[in-house]
Amino acid sequence: MAKEPRSLQGKVVAITGGARGIGKATAKALAREGAVIAIGDLDAELARATASELGEGSVGLELDVTRRDSFENFLDQVSERLGPLDVIINNAGIMPIGPFAEEDDATAKRMIDINLHGVITGTKLAIPPMVQRRTGHIVNIASQAGKAGVPGGATYCATKHAVVGLSEAVRAELRGTGVEVSVVMPAVVNTELGSGLPDTPGVKKLEPEDVANEIVNALKFPKFDVWVPRSSAAISTVMQLLPRRGREAIGRLLNVDKVLAEPDKGARAAYEERAARSEPGLEPGEGESGSGKKRTKSAAPR
Hints:
A 7-stranded parallel β-sheet has the order 3-2-1-4-5-6-7, with helices on both faces. The chain is α/β, with parallel strands linked by helices. Helix 1 (21-32) packs parallel to helix 2, helix 1 crosses helix 6 (208-220) and helix 4 runs parallel beside helix 5 (154-173). The longest helix has 29 residues, at 105-133. The N and C termini lie far apart (38 Å). Helices cover 44% and strands 12% of the residues. The protein has helices at 21-32, 44-54, 68-82, 105-133, 154-173, 208-220, 231-241, 244-253, 265-276; strands at residues 12-16, 36-41, 59-62, 87-90, 136-141, 179-186, 225-228.
């Protein structure tokens, strides 16, 4: 007998980095299901504009996922304006790429602060009220790079491996509480973050809506591992049965080793510049970081 899908009508959903890309597509998909959406983004103006596209009731709010006080304020506003939080989607992330030995420390810190610490903070803050109500769903956006190491994206892969491990551990801790956890692992997506990345033979770039639809499905039919496309799960299982040399040889045959290592730099230039302005670690009112970069209102994009 087929399982009945859970209704998302009236559910309060908070999406970090939700003003663009996967976050925006997911917000639209959930709004069509009747959910009420809070868009959190460092670009507050764009967050409000995105929320206005979703219809009455949804809100756009400023959020810097690298600051706990900003995250607390965001979730407090969500509860005050929309009601108790039912779902949090930790989506904010950046992906500057290049040879690991040439990566400066500020870039590495930025990725870790946004991609990992942002997920940790969002998950920690969401758990207590969800456990108290014995209901809720935490969705952490990782990547298929969280299951492998890809040249050109060493630190990015490290953050996504961490998100997968974090999600597995938290899921085990929350067993029996009524709170669900999902980790989403997309292949390359046709967003600004994926701009300039080469195609691999037989693998088509995903659209943000493809990922959004799988997130909606994971909320309606709760599951932990959310592979996008779904066929990736079987491919990953088969690959893990092969010895390392075999896996690496197949990866080279499919040009997987070139996806992040050999991008079209001209096509990625605008994204890389904007990602570099997603400056974490500044105290409120502070205009300069230790690297001398000025803080600007730039979302953590996907």
